[in-house]
Design brief:
Radius of gyration: 21 Å
Number of strands: 13
Largest sheet: 7 strands, mixed
Distance between the termini: 52 Å
Strand content: 5-15%
């Protein structure tokens, strides 16, 4: 029999996640020097990793012949100290995507409903479908999550509600008070998964603090990553935090040694490098203003963002995306998010942002004519 005849039926219709195109591929396709190609597609940190994180990762390589600490104890202790949580409430992961995937694997049964925004992070929909759940996609007026509409979408069959704030790819965020009120109002049979991948780009007062509700034993799981502000996307390391009984169940569903030694060491050291984090915040804040002003000058509709990226609307978005690659600029098309007329650009350095805007200004007339 063919493999497709043996596979789970749902697998045959499961979409494949499309990441941002690699620099080497674009350079080869367009005959460009890889050093002249700028990737502004995956919301990575243009400053790269913290020097402290790099040094720790290199040191960990000396023991690459040994299995990593399967409990990631040092990393959990560091995160626990930062968040003032018991390390047993921390779930280390292979990127924050893995937290969401394991949550779905552990709790979604065929027919369960999972509530999410229509233009929310696409992994929510993918992991729900793969595990036989039913995605309930709620409209997002103004490209933002409407928590009233999301609450109305919850039924006795709802198992999980996913809320990213800030949201990728729209860049919008709900206020801390909104999120807390929503969390308090959720029925006890619902797990509330909050994607905080871009939380570090917010002013701390604007980040919802769900720890008091977690301390009450509410079914709340918050997910964070080292891929964005910490610049460790290539090492794939993140974590979730929540009530210990929930975290204990996630451990039953994960693979052993799911976070490698180098990633654990780099992430632990990155948490100590406040200078690198603050420098990233400063450059990103200025870059948001720079790119927003440039898009406005070009007459393009954009969604005000609080992340490290901006979503904008343009006619013939796919053609613009491809033409920019010919100029050595990689950004992200958003058709998989049901946004076929939108593109998303990551905030880079001043020079990278300027080059993107100049390239966009160059290709737009040729595409629109």
């Amino acid at each position: 029999m063919r493999p497709d005849q043996l596979a789970r039926p749902g697998l045959l219709t499961q979409p494949v996640y499309e990441p941002g195109r690699p620099i080497a591929d674009v350079a080869r396709e367009h005959g460009l020097n890889p050093n002249d190609v700028i990737k502004l597609a995956s919301n990575e940190n243009p400053l790269g990793p913290s020097p402290k994180a790099l040094a720790a990762a290199r040191l960990a390589l000396d023991e690459a012949h040994l299995y990593p600490d399967g409990a990631a104890l040092a990393l959990r202790q560091k995160i626990g100290a930062m968040l003032k949580l018991d390390p047993a409430q921390i779930f280390p992961s292979n990127g924050s995507n893995e937290v969401m995937e394991i949550l779905a694997r552990a709790f979604i049964s065929p027919g369960d409903e999972v509530v999410m925004g229509r233009h929310a992070f696409i992994v929510f929909k993918y992991v729900t479908q793969f595990n036989g759940g039913c995605p309930v996609e709620v409209e997002m007026p103004g490209y933002a999550h409407d928590l009233t509409l999301m609450r109305e979408a919850i039924t006795p069959r709802t198992k999980i509600v996913y809320l990213p704030t800030p949201n990728n790819p729209t860049g919008t965020a709900n206020s801390a008070s909104e999120v807390l009120a929503f969390a308090r109002d959720l029925p006890p049979h619902v797990i509330f998964c909050v994607d905080e991948a871009y939380a570090e780009f917010l002013d701390p007062k604007d980040v919802p603090d769900l720890r008091p509700l977690i301390a009450q034993g509410r079914n709340i799981l918050c997910c964070r990553t080292f891929s964005k502000i910490y610049g460790l996307a290539g090492l794939r390391v993140g974590y979730g935090y929540g009530p210990k009984p929930l975290i204990d169940l996630l451990h039953r569903a994960r693979q052993p040694f799911n976070v490698n030694s180098e990633a654990q060491a780099a992430a632990t050291a990155a948490l100590d490098d406040r200078e690198h984090l603050e420098r990233t915040r400063t450059i990103n804040s200025a870059g948001l203003k720079q790119v927003a002003a440039g898009l406005k000058k070009l007459g393009l509709e954009q969604v005000p963002s609080v992340g490290n990226f901006i979503m904008f609307r343009v006619a013939k978005a796919r053609e613009v995306f491809l033409a920019l690659q010919g100029q050595g600029i990689i950004i992200r098309p958003l058709a998989p998010y049901d946004l076929p007329e939108h593109l998303r650009v990551t905030i880079g350095t001043v020079e990278q942002n300027d080059r993107f805007l100049r390239a966009l200004e160059k290709v737009l007339p040729a595409i629109s004519s």
